[in-house]
Design goal:
alpha+beta; five-stranded mixed sheet; about 30% helix; about 30% strand; globular
């Protein structure tokens, strides 16, 4: 008998500090690579960058999200990576986004992918009680 259960979904959130200020062109490049890799790995989530601080939520199949987070931790472009959420989830909160962006509006002209400015941030609406979504709202309100 085969086990047809879906893989366990998981999310990880972290904050970190960029080692240098990122302009819109470099930030756009980072986002484009993230979106490409996340589409390949079926990872969804959101990224915020403000005042050299990153906040990111990743969600997807548990082992894939863990491997992605391990790559992020090793990335030399940021320091002080602090994991603030590591949890199993029933459904995706950011399922429509391979990596949505919330942050300075001026990045828009530098990327072909539509990016959401902070004021327009909303989850998919199907998981309003999700801890990750609540955490995202709290982080974005402080910027």
């Amino acid at each position: 008998m085969h086990d047809h259960t879906k893989p366990l979904l998981h999310n990880i959130a972290y904050v970190s500090h960029s080692i240098w200020p990122l302009g819109p062109t470099l930030l756009s490049d980072i986002l484009e690579v993230s979106q490409r890799n996340n589409a390949r790995d079926e990872i969804t989530g959101i990224l915020k960058y403000h005042d050299q601080q990153f906040f990111q939520i990743l969600e997807g199949e548990q082992s894939v999200v863990q491997l992605c987070f391990e790559r992020i931790v090793r990335d030399p472009r940021h320091i002080n990576v602090s994991q603030i959420l590591d949890d199993s989830i029933m459904s995706r909160t950011f399922g429509n986004w391979t990596m949505s962006y919330a942050g300075p509006d001026e990045i828009g002209p530098y990327t072909p992918t539509p990016l959401k400015p902070r004021a327009d941030f909303k989850g998919d609406g199907n998981a309003s009680s999700c801890l990750a979504l609540e955490l995202a709202y709290q982080i974005f309100l402080k910027a």
